[in-house]
């Protein structure tokens, strides 16, 4: 059954390809069933099925008694379809995102922010989808509640409770993704022209997001133990920001971890000035030993905790969360209703809860952490032979924030690497002050192909 | 295997319930395995499993040699969990959304905007999820491309082509939902303080969404053949709006359909003034015969077409789309990257494409249309015996926009119906001018329970 589907799809793709490359144009007659079955080494019934489905799609049409013909203008040439990723645009946060998200599978992506498919818990996901497939109809087709499934919110609060943060599930709002969590928070709390602080360097999409809100972005210099707290205090006094967005554990892009002293000072400044801290905890599950968390130290008075399952569980089964004061959650619910009509998909939240509860997830993450440790070491060694060295050696996770030898510009290297079909994340897309031109963020899990290092070697000599 | 899971979950739920109702409080010892197995008529191994999972969740803890105890503050009482839906707030668009989305299954919802679970194509969805469960790993765990799956975009452009709108798949952007489609468009094209036109009455969440953008909302009086075109022209000249958001086919809430004359006049005014029209086509698949479409008549010069699969296929498998000029799509892609990081979930788009291509979907929709026709007639008859009459008799779909007998206020009726566990959608939540206090929108598919009519009868006498 499945093989038949695959064969039919292959035939359909072959015909689409011919139309896309103009080997077949509008009005052309397709080969006869028998003829095409021979050419494609397929059974006539497969060809019939492929033709029928292309008719249903409006790509071809049948004319009584005279076979099948290519219809007009139904499909654009493939070159047009692929034109969505402008290679020529400025190397900004969007450049990295769009290159990484839209590149074809032959492209290497040491610059991307996720694990390769075969590192993900796909067997657990398959099992969870089978369970959903035979589960209740309302999970399959109904809207989600405005806050998202109670089952998953309970799992989160239990996890928080283990860390020492005791909150109730109604202080947790499930969102479409971690990015949408930050977006909703900005919509609720910040207005155009307000100031928001981020780390310098920080996750590049924070900048893209804040720019979409037309918010003034100010960077706080980042050290190997978290943001520079003196600079933070000074900037808070000067700029009167509404929010400060940061990662506590396994900071993106540096992989650094907040020290308890830094955490305490940040919280003191926040409490004194009324700044709210958005603590993005998306890399939490990669930690070997848990590091200080602002939300755990302080509670949720001046901290909003967000996270998602995209890095560890699945980025296709997408869902994020916000843990915050009840008054903020109330406002966020209304905003999510207005802009998404309800919480995230019941199917998605059910699958995530199934995987988290399934028992194999913990084992999977242990294995991932073991692989990551090995992978980080290997990549550090290989980069160091090229004179590229990590700014700090992260305790866990998959990022390395590395400095290039003197005089090398990472944006220039990223642009030249396109020709080698390699997508890098150059330092300045992470830096508000544009002061990271000699840095590059490497994702160690995406560096398994030797071409990454061979290409860098060529660039550097 | 599955039964075992169900039994374990039932035991867990029973314990949670006891904690929630304070029958068991923090520090209490749980019954012994043997004792509780007897009480629950379950096997000891089921109890062991349930206790183990509750330990993993942090709800209970085991103490060496002395059994299991309830942990502190891990779970709030259920009354708190349910407190998310404030019954006492103003009857505004959020009131209807939150009441409908969050009410428990015993509540009747003639005011909601979707079909009951058993009207949805759940068998086709189950099949599609089984296919996904045995499909490629990248569908299960990778991020989606920035525009969303080409396969689904191709299905959409083929469908458009059948209607006479020939565009290429790179003029289609898949989004998280229909609501997110409107939201992205507003983010791209409208700034705070700008004016946007909607129909009066219109889908209530358009107002909630525009308010979230702090946009000035102006209503265009709606007639049984579409918006009043003279009023539209006058308001466009006066207000210089950036956008006009409307439904062409099966307008929400009235169920009315645009006439070709109205469509032509709207497009002429739009072309002369530069106003962009957002045509929300979410109810398209319910039509018996296709009615005029602005995007088909004009192309995508002044029209942006949006839609989703939430009403006909699944609201859990959520996905929307935007068809627009290529220059607008480019801007929308960046915005979606910034605010959602990538397009909708590959799992979701794969399931939708599978269902649409699966063959059973067309048959399902034919059956739904047949059921709807019958249902509309029955509900109209029952409402008319109460003196409640439809403003227009829709050609298709599931909405009836009805006028109450003289002097009856539908907001008042909606509030009083809460005591009968019935959620209504009173006229004024749809009306910018608040001039629809004698109207109510009924969803005929949610009126199968006689209590809806008995309750209304009591209210009206």
Please describe what this structure looks like.
The structure is a homodimer of 461-residue chains. Chain A has 461 residues and is of the alpha/beta class. The first copy, chain A, folds into three domains: 2-70, Winged helix-like DNA-binding domain superfamily/Winged helix DNA-binding domain (Arc Repressor Mutant, subunit A), CATH 1.10.10; 85-114 and 362-460, Alpha-Beta Complex (Aspartate Aminotransferase, domain 1), CATH 3.90.1150.10; 122-357, Type I PLP-dependent aspartate aminotransferase-like (Major domain) (Aspartate Aminotransferase, domain 2, 3-Layer(aba) Sandwich), CATH 3.40.640. The first copy, chain A, contains 18 helices and 14 strands. In chain A, strands 3-10-9-8-7-4-5-6 form an eight-stranded mixed β-sheet, sandwiched between helices. In chain A, strands 11-12-14-13 form a four-stranded antiparallel β-sheet. The longest helix of chain A is centred in the C-terminal third of the chain and has 26 residues, at 360-385. At the A-B interface, helix 5, helix 6, helix 7, helix 8 and helix 9 of A face helix 5, helix 6, helix 7, helix 8 and helix 9 of B. Chains A, B: This is Transcriptional regulator. Chains A, B: Residues 5-73 form the HTH gntR-type domain.
